Amino acid sequence: xxxxxxxxxxxxxxxSIGGFVFCMIFLPFQRxxxxxxxxxxxxxxxxVALLSFVIPFYFAISIKDGTEVALINKELLVFQDIGGYxxxxxxxxxxxxxxxIGLIWLIGALVILIYYLWKYLRLLNVVKKQSFYIxxxxxxVKFSKIKNEKKISDVFxxxxxxxxxxxxxxxxxxxxxxxxYMINAFEEEEVEFILEHEFCHIVNDDLLRNSLILILSCxxxxxxxYYFLRKNLSEWTExxxxxxxxxxxxxxxxxxxxxxxxxxxxxxxxxxxxxxGL
Length: 278
What we know:
alpha+beta
């Protein structure tokens, strides 16, 4: 069992190093690439960068130098002086207590996975138990209109007292959740802007992508660069939705859309200040 854990940890360590190298090449040129590529291309590029932390590119080396064949045949004797992947494994085993480090990594991965699952299930439970269907004319009319245009059936519009900002949750059944304190704070056109943005996340499968990236982060919980890239991907995802929503808008509508973002942030700050003062 300890050998399996050690083997799994070495695989994750090598893929994490490979992802680190890839990102050290990608990140310095990100700003330049963003000027030449579309925001959607940047989302795909950041997704690839994150996947580089779990795709075992090092297999090309380990297969070439025979290490994979040796491991499959349980020929575990390796020699430091021949170089390559097996030399790296030998040095890691020599300088670190692999049985303990591997176990710490596994416990950390399980703890992070359980935490993310608990957090997600708790959010869904809050949405299902504490939410209510929004019957306000502005919201329901605009929601039905956009839902029919996008031809999406399994999505519901709800309000919730426990959610601080508009968001979309769920994988199979999706819920566009509007904080209850915001429902009466917007004009009709602003309501349409918000719903268009949330539907854009659904159409682009951002919920599924984010869930996958979140699960994969459990393997790389020890690597801070992975968390930085995950945040970077989230920001580009929002930029894509903003761009797709406003691409056919007039200059005046884009100005109103920008003002809406500021308005939402202001409402969130006001709410946080009130809660902090209680």
